[in-house]
């Protein structure tokens, strides 16, 4: 296969840089505690300094994998598939979600929303970052807004983001893992004073599972 042929398949979403895939329990947000199959796509240039999967940032480190193979693996394990990254919307998600939906699967995405929305999703978890803000289409379609709280300024940022999402979007504040001891009490106080928000925790880390 020539480089141009390979790039054409990537542009169509028929090849994706697959970092890892695994069956586990969703640890965060609305679907926490439920079984799901995670597909982690490599590639991200949002550049959060506290990112816990920085190894996902460079797409060339992860094998360009046939989308049909990703779908075949996913269908063996779960009815709920979570596409995450990296930043999956750097890539064309139409083919992946189309094939997953054809298998009768429920398809979720976890995204910063920094790139144009592609794909057909049953659930969109929008986790915006200050470095590169979401597109308007993602704000309009997000089912949950999950803001990571690293310091006090993130409460201001959270309110700015909450003002942009649709009225039915569920609002979550989640402590950045390394700052959880400091920020959890502040998040609790904030949610009690502003009950439109809910607390999200990375429960999978407390359970010591992927």
TrEMBL record:
Its EC number is 4.3.99.3. It is an enzyme of class 4 (lyase). The keyword S-adenosyl-L-methionine applies. [4Fe-4S] cluster binds at residues 44, 48, 51. Keywords: 4Fe-4S, Iron, Iron-sulfur, Lyase, Magnesium, Metal-binding, Queuosine biosynthesis, S-adenosyl-L-methionine. Pathway: Purine metabolism; 7-cyano-7-deazaguanine biosynthesis. Its cofactor is Mg(2+); S-adenosyl-L-methionine; [4Fe-4S] cluster. Binds 1 S-adenosyl-L-methionine per subunit. InterPro entries: 7-CO-7-deazaguanine_synth-like (IPR024924), Aldolase_TIM (IPR013785), rSAM (IPR007197), rSAM_sf (IPR058240). S-adenosyl-L-methionine binds at residues 50-52, 86, 127-129. It catalyses: 6-carboxy-5,6,7,8-tetrahydropterin + H(+) = 7-carboxy-7-carbaguanine + NH4(+). It comes from the Bacteria. Belongs to the radical SAM superfamily. 7-carboxy-7-deazaguanine synthase family. HAMAP family: QueE. Homodimer. Catalyzes the complex heterocyclic radical-mediated conversion of 6-carboxy-5,6,7,8-tetrahydropterin (CPH4) to 7-carboxy-7-deazaguanine (CDG), a step common to the biosynthetic pathways of all 7-deazapurine-containing compounds. This is 7-carboxy-7-deazaguanine synthase. The gene is queE.
């Amino acid at each position: 296969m020539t480089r141009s042929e390979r790039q054409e398949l990537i542009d169509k979403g028929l090849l994706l840089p697959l970092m890892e895939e695994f069956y586990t329990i969703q640890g965060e947000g609305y679907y926490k505690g439920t079984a799901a199959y995670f597909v982690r796509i490599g590639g991200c240039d949002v550049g959060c300094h506290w990112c816990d999967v920085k190894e996902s940032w460079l797409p060339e480190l992860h094998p360009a994998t046939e989308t049909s193979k990703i779908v075949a693996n996913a269908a063996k394990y779960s009815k709920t598939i979570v596409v995450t990254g990296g930043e999956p919307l750097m890539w064309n998600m139409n083919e992946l979600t189309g094939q997953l939906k054809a298998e009768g699967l429920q398809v979720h995405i976890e995204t910063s929303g920094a790139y144009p929305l592609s794909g057909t999703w049953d659930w969109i978890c929008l986790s915006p970052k200050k470095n590169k803000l979401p597109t308007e289409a993602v704000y309009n379609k997000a089912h949950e807004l999950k803001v990571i709280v690293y310091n006090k300024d993130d409460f201001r940022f959270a309110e700015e983001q909450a003002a942009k999402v649709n009225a039915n979007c569920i609002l979550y504040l989640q402590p950045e893992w390394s700052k959880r001891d400091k920020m959890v009490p502040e998040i609790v106080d904030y949610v009690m004073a502003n009950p439109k928000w809910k607390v999200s925790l990375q429960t999978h880390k407390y359970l010591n599972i992927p």
